[in-house]
Design brief:
Elements (H helix, E strand, L loop, with lengths): L5 H23 L2 H25 L2
Helix pairs in contact: 1-2
Length: about 55
């Protein structure tokens, strides 16, 4: 059984939370919330892909 890597797990949880925040912001009709959540999601995904590229051998 493989060992669970903590950093990718936390990054994926934050990304899912950002997507959930986008949905909540849409429901609340908050343009600022939608924009902020989308930017956070893009940033977290970028960090995740960069981390994956650095750790892959």
């Amino acid at each position: 059984m493989k060992r669970i890597e903590l950093v990718p797990l936390l990054l994926s949880i934050v990304a899912v939370a950002a997507l959930m925040a986008v949905g909540v912001s849409i429901a609340e009709q908050s343009a600022i919330g939608i924009a902020a959540s989308t930017l956070i999601f893009i940033a977290v995904m970028g960090v995740g892909f960069a981390h994956k590229k650095r750790t892959r051998r």
